[in-house]
Amino acid sequence: MKKQEVSILVSVYNKEHYIQDALASIAIQRNFPLKSLEVVVVDDNSSDSSFERAREFLDLEDFSYKLIKASSTGGSSRARNILMKKAKGKIHIHLDGDDLLHQDCVYEIYHVFQQNPCVGFVYSDHASIRGETKGPIPRPEQILKIKDSKSDFDIRGFLRNKHNYVGHVKAVRASVALPFDEDIPYAEDADWIIRHGLAGVDFFHIPEVLYYWRRNVGGLSEEFSQKRENDYWHNFVFERGLKELENKKHKTRENEFISDSK
């Protein structure tokens, strides 16, 4: 296996109490050589000690890493775009700085990509955990809810239901990865998924919990989610996606008509 085959991209903003646990969940990955792993962390100009705590942890680990602090707070989309530009791995796995990866996450995702060369985007089921959860492996009583994705990804169903049933672990081949829209302050994950679906990227669902999403810990996205504007942006990204899907269908019909007329 080549060095830095997989990059784990960690975005952080004011997560000083959680960032070391998030990074520890990377360090304990099973059945995957850490020498083939690269960790890239972008601190979105935190006002707490997130950056220092990340550096303190990473300096003691054996895997390759990059640690970057933004000069100003630009939001999660900009941080993730920086992460993707800096990453060298052929596979990108996104992790928020207060969440956790299951110990088999990297192995399972890498295996899917290796066995399915046409797949560009891999996602799994996930579980939400209590905000006060400590350590890289949550105990059963700390797990609030398991979210299974129930069905494989379908761009039409995704857009019509206006519901993000793609699990929190999101892994993409670097060769097909699209940038996040930095003009969208909320529902940026859904928008990113939609644009990959519209671009014809093949999705693969792993029906296992490979990601733990921490609830009720604050931060920019949670602050914004409490505002009414979140409904506007949620509807905006889905309506924009539906319009683009209809335009693509219309152009396809036009091309078919032209071909039949020749």
What can you tell me about this protein's structure?
This protein is of the alpha/beta class. The protein has 8 helices and 9 strands. Helix 1 (19-27) links the parallel strand 1 (6-12) and strand 2. The longest helix is centred in the C-terminal third of the chain and has 33 residues, at 229-261. The protein is globular and about 55 Å long.
Concise account of the structure shown:
The chain is of the alpha/beta class.
The percent of residues in helical segments reads 25-40%
Shape: globular
Proportion in β-strands: 15-25%
Q: Main β-sheet, in a few words?
A: 9 strands, mixed
Order of helices and strands: EHEHEHEEHEEHEHEHH
Q: Which CATH class is shown? A: Alpha Beta
CATH superfamily: Spore Coat Polysaccharide Biosynthesis Protein SpsA, Chain A
The tally of beta strands, per DSSP, is 9
Q: What order do the helices and strands come in, and which of them pair?
A:
Blueprint: E1 6-12, H1 19-27, E2 37-43, H2 50-58, E3 64-69, H3 76-86, E4 91-96, E5 100-101, H4 105-115, E6 119-129, E7 143-147, H5 155-161, E8 170-173, H6 188-198, E9 202-214, H7 220-225, H8 229-261
Parallel strand pairs: 1-2, 1-4, 2-3, 6-9
Antiparallel strand pairs: 4-8, 5-9, 6-7, 6-8
Helix pairs in contact: 1-2, 6-8
What key attributes describe this structure?
262 residues, nine-stranded mixed sheet, alpha/beta
